[in-house]
Amino acid sequence: MTDRQALVQADRGQAATTIHLVSKDSFADWAKRLSAGQRAALAAQKFDGGGFDHAVVPDGDGWFAVAGVADLAALSTWCLAKLGEVLPGGTYRLAEEPAALDKALVGWACGQYRFDRYRSEASEEGPRILLTKQAKAVEPALAEAAAVELVRDLVNTPAEDMGPAELEAVASQLAKAYRAELHVTKGDQLEQVFPMVHMVGRAAGRSHAPRMIELEWGDPAHPRLAIVGKGVCFDSGGLDIKPSSGMLLMKKDMGGAAHALALARLVMEHGLKVRLHLLVPAVENAVSANSFRPGDVLRSRAGLSVEIGNTDAEGRLILGDALAKAGEAKPELVIDFATLTGAARVALGPDLPGLFAREDATAEALYRGGEESDDPVWRLPLHAGYREYLKSDIADLNNAGGAGMAGASVAALFLDKFVPEGIDWAHFDTFAWRPAAKPGRPKGGDALGLRAAWHMLKARYGG
């Protein structure tokens, strides 16, 4: 992996290649200043100022780059990302810096992400370093890019190397780095205090034994913030087993945990004025002689009994125990992330996490955070009328709605049962995966909803 901290640096007059930014509207006037040979070079590369397009232009013994952006006055997160992918390794500076460059710095760094852990030959390309006069923007932008890339690394890693123990190791590293308290519950104790986490994960055996990972940080006098992430490190579907095609991406079913860990790091790194409580229920939903079964009734930490209508609806079970524990400390806000339902993907596609929230103001703040950071989210309803889909003949509720409709809302309503009344709670049903590459966003694991939540938390709690 490239040293992320080297990709954006304060401009102190270092030698650098110039990048000119133009738009469709400004390109013609800008090109008039060039020589005939330079304009010919642009024409040969069919460059006309279009967004994400770029060209290399000879300039005496050297060269400069020109890139098209949609809006010169307001650079988006991803407008420079393509340059970070394709330019030769070296040092660059913008000919004219816009007033606000912070978002584009995130995209520049994210555009150079490579997951090469399993490649025998690593890329020999050198880093592309961007210089900026806005020195105060460098560290926050790189921290945000590093959080995105943490999610990508964790999700891209196969389940054999990213099981519950490995998620615990990541949390342990964070605890050491930021002097946080780490508590891990597993074994016999897990069965007693987090019974649904135990039941879902027990079939994986000792090698991928289930556990509840908790981290606490910050001044206890500050508002309490709980961040919860679904950590299903691989999902076979259990006894309601998935077809082989349905398992191909199931290493990403811990994507919620990856988001939660990355967001917690941002909170601690920037010193937000909160008492942070991170919870990651980590399991593998495996098939074994002691797998939990359709029709079983599970007890939960909250005291509710849950009939199992489908063993492949396991994520909501482990989140139920985690949300119940989070709620016991009466937090001011709870945010959870989960790769929870295919229904959310049918409704919203891969790019938009489904957002559910009890409070309209919180939903609006998260939506606004997504708009500000080019990390869009879309609110879906917690419609009380759909609670009937969770009814059970023999238990307090069923884990799988039987109607075959409103699947994302029904799953969110299941979680809502485990969050105590009166607590501000938001739930992200995210994909954590990008099926096709876009500038700055390669195919594979990705952070979707992370930066929306981060920008909302910054605005709410400060640092």
Mean pLDDT: 96
Low-confidence runs:
none
- The CATH level-2 architecture of the largest domain is identified as 3-Layer(aba) Sandwich
Distance between the termini: 29 Å
Number of domains: 2
Secondary structure: elements and pairs:
Layout (H helix, E strand, L loop, with lengths): L7 E3 L6 E6 L4 H5 L4 H9 L9 E6 L2 E7 L12 H6 L3 E5 L7 H9 L17 E5 L5 H19 L7 H15 L2 E6 H7 L1 H7 L9 E7 L6 E6 L1 E5 L8 H4 L7 H15 L5 E11 L11 E3 L5 E3 L7 H14 L4 E6 L3 H7 L5 E4 L2 H14 L4 E2 L17 E2 L8 H10 L7 E6 L3 E2 L9 E2 L4 H12 L2
Parallel strand pairs: 1-6, 2-4, 2-5, 5-6, 9-11, 9-14, 10-11, 13-17, 14-18, 15-16
Antiparallel strand pairs: 3-4, 7-8, 8-11, 12-13, 15-18, 19-20
GO molecular function: manganese ion binding; metalloaminopeptidase activity
Family: Belongs to the peptidase M17 family.
GO biological process, one term: proteolysis
3D architecture notes:
The protein is an alpha/beta fold. It has two domains: 4-126, Leucine Aminopeptidase, subunit E, domain 1 (3-Layer(aba) Sandwich), CATH 3.40.220; 144-461, Zn peptidases (Aminopeptidase, 3-Layer(aba) Sandwich). Helices cover 33% and strands 21% of the residues. The strands form four sheets. Strands 7, 8, 9, 10, 11, 14, 15, 16 and 18 form a nine-stranded mixed β-sheet that branches. It has a six-stranded mixed β-sheet with strand order 1-6-5-2-4-3. α4 links the parallel β5 and β6 (128-132). α5 (138-156) runs antiparallel to α10 (255-269) and α6 packs parallel to α10 (255-269).
